[in-house]
Each structure stands twice: as structure tokens, then as C-alpha cells.
Amino acid sequence: MLTNSTHFAMKHIEGQIVDVLNRDIFSGSLDIEDGKIVAVNRHATKETVYIMPGFVDAHIHVESSMLAPCEYARLAMKHGTVAIVTDPHEIANVCGVEGVRYMMAESDRTPMKMCFAVPSCVPATALCPSGAVVDSTQVAELLKDPHVYALAEMMDYVGVINHDAECVAKLAAARQAGKPVDGHIPCITGEDLRHYVEEGISTDHEVNTLAEAEEKMELGMKILLRRGSAARNLKVLHPLIAQHADMLMFCTDDQKAFDLQNGHINKMVASEVQLGYDLFDLLRIASVNPVHHYRLPVGLLQPGDPADFILCKSLTTFDVVETYIDGEPTSHLGYQPVERIINNFKVQPITTSQIAYDLSQCEELHVIKVKDGELITPHLVLKRDEWDDIQKIVVVNRYQENPSIGVGFLSNFNITNGAVAQSIAHDSHHIIATGSSDELIVKAVNRLIELQGGIVVVDEHSETTLPLPIGGLMSNEPAETVAAKQIALIQHLRKLDCVRFSPLIALAFLELVVIPELKITDKGLFDVVKFEYI
């Protein structure tokens, strides 16, 4: 395994070398000096461990793990991830450019190669204001930063198609900087899609059908196969692997700490190996494609490359023995507390009168339907005799002392005798809450305000909390502690009869007005299809 040659001051690592670029596996060794691979040698060895390129997550929001960057990296590196392309638009929506710079500074404290994409839509749209604005001038400046490798997902596809001045300026800045642009355009086809792609947008992770993927690939877009804690298009799109491996990348997008504990990109590769897909195609998707597409400073096990690689016991389970980055092992790394905390939380406690809604004169309601494992939320219009399943949902603007509050109704979430509130509500990250009564909703919201961010589940007699002091999005505690608290929140919700696949993630996406069909903001219900408030 790892030995040191005192004569050459060089590391020498033996095993079964998996050369993805040349589609070969052979016995041999790596010679490593000053963080670089200086030689790849072929020779007999007794070592059975597989040496292979490290994994890359092509699209992730670190904040969604609820972990600070160093803690996220510590967990992901255990599973063989050496690099990520991370879009810090969650913290940018809360704290603006300061939030982006904060994430970059924290990333410098971990050996993982955290490669940033500049948030392109802060706020997501002008119709849904957040805690900050990152305009085209600021985007252009951030694109010059050496941490940056792309312009992040262009969610305002309406603005792109209609040539909105800010969208045009941001896309021009990316072209001038020579950086690729990531896309976000679910369910759009035909001429609108073509116009969007012609603006230089090169990827999409919001793909829901094989036909949608085929159309986008024909236009030149790379498709990201996603398996996060909520959205999992890999289940539908995996047949693309057989014919289009050169056009695909793996990503998790949004993955909670309790899921990250159990695996990352390595588990995506393992699941597809079990389905019979070609090993080298899968490893290309998991490492080579994102490195080449984003021009990442990540080695691919070739002489002269950075010594970024992993040691695995098996080419079916991909359980990682060790992860090396720039020639150094990472498994020994422990918890690193953050150096500072930033936040943006101004709202004062609310009362039940502020969320009251008189239904006595209503004959029908516009209702958001939640579906397991999907971010798309159907728009229901229910008559009075169909209201058995509904419960109230509220969004409270956390950036105002006297907040604007949106009130609506939700179907298929199902909380009995309790409520949940959280300061994670993509992408504006206002307080979003739902529950079985106004009193319990207000109880949860006000406890959350007291914590200055996090997640709160309450019933009449108890509460479970996860404080998130960094922007109301991330914890400053160890990853294992955060994961345990996430699980405790889910267990409390289960006791309240909320048995959604991932209820906290489902709740977090109900404010995101760029994903169809019906969403809610602090201004009320928003019809995403018509792109207007109801």
C-alpha cells in the first residue's frame, strides 16, 4: 500500500490500477512526488486493492447538507469524492456576495477540491425576493475568482428566452471569462428550449423523462444524472448510460448529512454496476466527464496529473479504503469548527391572527400537492367536499422585522397534532411552515425565530430542533451530530403521522417558483406554468 522511498523522497503505492481513460486494469504502482503522479508503472504485485480516479459531484449545493464546508468535505471524501462543482446560491440568497466569499474561504480549509459555480439567479426571479441580490456586475467580478469554474444553473429560463438584460449580461460575462454555463430548464421543449441552449447553456440536471433528455442532448446539452436526498432522476434516466456515456455526469444536487454518511457518488456507480452497465462508462461519467467539461484541476491517474485518486476493495460495491488528494491521504481528518458565523435574520415573532384565513365563503381552493421523490408539485383545484386531506402552509419573510406572510394550502403532507417550521426554503430561504393548527404553526415558527434559523418540529407537549446558525442553512456542529438531529426530526414527524419519503426536503422546495406547477412565497400562491401569482 503506502510506502516511502527515502532515497527518492517519493511515495510509492501499489495495487490494481484502473486506467479509465485507456479502459484498462493492470497490476502496478504509482510514484508520487510533490503532489503529482510522476510515473505509472506496470509490474506484478500482491496488492489487490484497486487504484482509480476519485469521484466528482458535478452539481451540488453544500448548504443543503446542513453542514459547514469542511464537514461536508470530510464525509464526502470518505466515500471517494475528491472534487465537487458547488453552487453556493443558497447562502448567496441569504447573505449575497459575502455568503459566496464565506463559502470560498471555508473551502480553503479542506483538501477536497471545492470548485465553485457563481450563482446566476439571486434571487431566483424578481417575483420572489430573497435576502440579497447578486447582479450581473457582481457575477462578472466573481467569475474572475480562481475558485470559480462555471456560471451556475440559469434558473430564470423565462428571462433567458425573453432576453432579459440581466440574464444577457451574466451569460456574456461567463463567455468573456471562458467559463461554461449550467442550465435549469425542466419541462420546456421545442423552440423555447433551442433558444435557451443557443445562449451557451451547456448542462441540465432538471430532466424528468428520456425523451426530454434526448432532445436536450441533440441540442448539445450534457445531462446530469441525479440522486439526491429528494430528487432522483437516475431511476428514470439510467438507460441513457448504455448509449450516451460521453454526454452524462453524476450529481447529488441536494443531499442531507444523514444520507451522505452512507455514500455519495460511489453508491451511484455501484447501483449502476449492479444493473449491468459498463464499468468504464460509469467511471467516465463519475470522474472524466466533469473534469473535462469544467476543466477542473483534478487528476485522472495519468503521469503529470495531480495525485487525486482512491483505493477501493471492490469494483462492485466501491467501498473506499482511502482517498488521496494531491498525494495526501484524507481519512485521518477530523472535525474542524468554522472560523466565523454569518446570518441574516430580522423577523420578529408572529401571531395566529397574521396567518388566519377565512374559509367560510370559499367553495374551492387552489392547493399544492406534494409527491414523494419529486420536486414538481401538481396544482389542484379542490371543491369543499374534497378538503379532507389539506392543511395550511405559510411562508414568513425572515428578512423583514414586520414580515410579509403568504398563506396557502397543501395536500398529501399529513401532519396530525403538530407542526414543522424551517428556514430552508429554496431559494429565498424565508421561514416555511405547515401543521395541523394555526397555534402549532405559530409555536414552531416562533421557536425557529428564537433560534435564528434551523428546523423545528413541535406538538402540544414536545419539540425537536436542529439549530442552523450559519445563514439559517448550516450547522457549526460535527457532521455526525447534525445527521443524528436530522434523523430525530424525521422520527418526530413520523410520530405525527407525516410519512412522506423526505418531508423536510419536500417542504424546502415548495417556495421554488422555477419548478412547476404550484408554489408559495411570502406574497402568496404562485402558478409556475402561467408564471404569475394567483
Describe, in plain words, how this protein is organized in 3D:
This protein is α/β, with parallel strands linked by helices. The strands form 4 sheets. Strands 1, 2, 3, 4, 5, 14, 15 and 16 form an 8-stranded mixed sheet that branches. The chain has an 8-stranded parallel sheet with strand order 6-7-8-9-10-11-12-13. Strands 18-17-20-19-22-21-23-24 form an 8-stranded mixed sheet, sandwiched between helices. The chain has 16 helices and 27 strands. α12 runs antiparallel to α13 (279-294). β21 (418-422) and β22 form a beta hairpin. The protein folds into 2 domains: 54-296, Metal-dependent hydrolases (TIM Barrel, Alpha-Beta Barrel), CATH 3.20.20.140; 352-533, no CATH class.
Structural features:
single chain, 534 residues, alpha/beta, TIM Barrel, eight-stranded mixed sheet, eight-stranded parallel sheet, globular, disordered N terminus
Which helices and strands occur, and which strands form pairs?
Layout: E1 2-5, E2 10-19, E3 24-33, E4 36-42, E5 50-53, E6 55-60, H1 69-78, E7 81-86, H2 89-95, H3 97-107, E8 113-118, H4 136-142, E9 148-154, H5 157-161, H6 165-177, E10 181-183, H7 190-198, E11 201-204, H8 210-218, E12 222-226, H9 234-237, H10 241-244, E13 248-251, H11 257-260, H12 265-274, H13 279-294, E14 309-312, E15 320-325, E16 328-329, E17 364-369, E18 379-383, E19 390-396, E20 405-411, E21 418-422, E22 431-435, H14 438-451, E23 454-459, E24 463-467, H15 479-495, H16 503-508, E25 518-521, E26 524-527, E27 532-533
Parallel strand pairs: 2-5, 6-7, 7-8, 8-9, 9-10, 10-11, 11-12, 12-13, 17-20
Antiparallel strand pairs: 1-2, 2-3, 3-4, 5-14, 14-15, 15-16, 17-18, 19-20, 19-22, 21-22, 21-23, 23-24, 25-26, 26-27
